[in-house]
Amino acid sequence: MNEDDVYVCMICERAGTDGIHILSQFICSDCEAEIVNTDVEDDLYDYLVMRMRVLWLDLIRMETDQPPGSTFS
Asked: Using only C-alpha atoms, what is the Rg of the chain?
């Protein structure tokens, strides 16, 4: 990954360069801070969990060697 590369955040869908890469996904620094600082009682928590579900699907796909875009029961 080149430091000049721009990625799309899996949470906010904005383009950025600062953030973290988890599996095949990118999370910008702002969203990373939101994830770390959001309380489970906050309404934002459910949204963040829903958006991060993609990571679990990627992990399952890797473990079961399923092709990208396949669905899981």
From this structure: 14
**Residue 39 within a domain:** yes
Range of the domain at 21: 7-64
Q: Could you tell me if residue 19 is inside a domain?
A: yes
Domain annotation covers residue 53: yes
Over the stretch 16-67, which tens digit does the pLDDT of each residue have?
A: 999 999 888 999 999 999 999 999 999 999 999 999 888 888 788 877 775 6
Amino acid at residue number 60: I
SS (H, E, C) 35-70: HHHCCCCCHHHHHHHHHHHHHHHHHHHHHHCCCCCC
22 half-sphere exposure, CB direction, 13 A CA radius: 17
What total number of domains does the chain contain?
1
